[in-house]
Queue: 3 jobs
Job 1
Amino acid sequence: MNPKLLAKKVIHRFSKFINKKTDFLVQNKKKRIKKCYICGEEFENFYKYRINKELDLAFKYFEIVGSDIENFGCYYCNCNDRDRHLFMYFDKLNIWDKFKNARILHFAPEKPMENKIEQLLPVEYIKCDLHPKDNWRKIDITKIDFEADYFDILICNHVIEHIPDHLQALKEISRVLKKTGFAILQTPYSKLLYNHFEDPNINTDALRLTFYGQEDHVRIVSKRQFVDELSLYFTLNIVKNENLFSNEECYRFGVNNKEDLIMVFNSKMKE
């Protein structure tokens, strides 16, 4: 065979091999790229909840379902995994439409969610916290200073685990929520525990950090007990993450694929 022709064939085959290898690497790199669901920016990884992993023992020991502490924050818009997950749920379930012309009470509002809701021009949007900032209103969730049947929507995203008398908080949420209204009541929980894990002697920041995973948490929530408690006041609609999103989507957008949407409707108290 002509040496030049042989060389061309070798180069051609080698080029095809290189192109296939490059395509494979590019495709796999794309699979590894993380993307913020809210701002749309792409990067290799989200930043972690905290650098010191020794402080996350409680999360791992109790197998806490809630924040994805390994894929927590976006470098660009600074949203966290809980923000992204709610946006994903609300988009998929067309919940945003319900915010238009509604009265909304939002505890400890997350900035991305706050901005989105304001764009929807609700009739009334109350942003609140026990320790308010910016234009938030000071409201104690265990003693909400609004009349009964006032709000169409109430959002309480990762708040219940901070409230000592959380049953009173649930009762108050039910009281101020219209019978046709709904609430989003996300909280980190453990499926391992039969009952909530809480002890009055765990009463310092250091002890709460060690046993509850965060200085201002007052318990590790048992999913079983929390569902039972919610059932006393509400009709539950727990939307399974696995029914809406693939594991690949959860990986890419940096959300916990085990965290379902805890959506409740207000019917129990007013029947």
Job 2
Amino acid sequence: MSAADTPVGMPSPDAETRRSPWGEVLHSLLRSGTFLTGFGIVLFWVICALLGEHFVPYDALADDIINALAPPSAEHWFGTDQIGRDVFSRVIVGSRDILTVAPLATILATVAGTALGLLIGYFRGIVDDIVSRVLEAFMAIPVVIIALLAIVALGTSKITVIVVIGLSFAPIIARTVRSAVLAERELDYVAAAKLRHEGALHTMFVEILPNVVPPILVETTVRLGYAIFAVATLSFMGFGIQPPSPDWGLSISSNYGMIGGGFWWTVLFDALSIASLVIGVNLVADGVHGAFND
């Protein structure tokens, strides 16, 4: 059927054929219920992080001892904590710090890991052998242990948490990028770049990098979920985000002792918030992975 014979309002076969690879990925994402569900959850928390303090009913930092440990009610939807702070307001506003620190740490991990993966994948040989062994040794140590050692040595701050988590996840991304680069470096376009006497940096970042973006994007979304857990864990242990922030991990740490007294609401809603955000990010990661593999 020719384009002229295509019914009005229907895309022609030629239009489908002309769709770019990135257009195909976007089309697949927009048809993916998994991706859209995860995106909706993440978008909700992003809006809360950006605008939450403007629509919450109470100041997230204001205490009210008279109403301490009040159960969920029409006045306090999620109840109050041990010093009378409104839990609902703290849950909404508390999304800000974790949605600042975790994405920045993931971006740092992606940039450092991508550069390192390109380097060892392109040069191979002794560079690959030495750096890969170092990365393997580094990855054998749990992220939380590395973070604790670094934070104790450098001091507690958001910048320290971002750098520590970012550099802890960089080797994992580097390994993924290395595998992709090893496949790409044997293709004709890389050989053509060498014949044109292009420099190594040009070949890595201009020729190869655009072709290994899909696995990098997938790995980045996966690492973001792990970064959220890492930030919450460090805050819970007292080494991450510090008071008076209403951060979820910090709030759980401050109130988990109340559970034994039956005051479950002081912890439950913060824990559900962390879980929902991680689930949303993982759904986005599954959607992105599926779109690149369709």
Job 3
Amino acid sequence: MKPFFQTFSVAFVLLAGCNNNNNNLPAAIADTKTTPVINYSLISEYPHDTTAYTEGLLMHDGKLYESTGYTNELPQTKSLFGILDLKTGKINPVVQLDTSKYFGEGITFLHNQWFQLTYRTKIGFVYDAQYFKQIKTFVLPVKEGWGMTTDSTSLIMSEGTNILTWVDPVSLIAIKKISVSDESGTVNLLNELEYIDGFIYANIFTTHIIVKIDPASGKVVGKIDLDVLATEQERGFAGALQMNGIAYNPVHHTIYITGKMWNKVYEIRLNP
């Protein structure tokens, strides 16, 4: 996918009647609010496996898990998920998919089970918590599998559009969908997701932006601009691709950020 930008220019003209009667003026047009920018502090940096085509990042039980996908153009990549060692940057796989069949996508943990998406095969996997043994597969109730998180009750999935889908973790059937928008209209290319303190945070694919979404309304209520970190990767490491990966550490109230084939994981803290 390629990023694209649209520029809109709007001119407002107010016409007054010769009799100077305010009733002859057109209705005033309300100013459009700009989405607040959320500032952050960089806490730490860690190594990251540069063969990891990152699709999901998740902190669970004190461990950082990463899911990755495989693409023919990058034969060193794999479709797997496992524990990311922040000392070495290497992933210790707990699940590895057949790359001839599946492109691994987002992961999440709920009700003592692991859930994993695949890209275009519309297949999801469920694993037990202890041994990562596959319990079952299910048909994805979304157009494509991209990112996934949970609000502790439902699974929440993205599909690369402006739509987020809530899924019952037992029946694995969609129970709700919302459209995400900001002051400019719908927000597309929603990718990796993380649920933090009642809000959904989403990577916008091909950009350096993470948006903060109100799950009740679908409105974007804040944006984190990570251009400094992403540009450091793009300029400093030739293999670095799109930013992707958000994992919240509830103990330290920090967020881990990385991207496809990046050589670092960044730990940040959002500033109030």
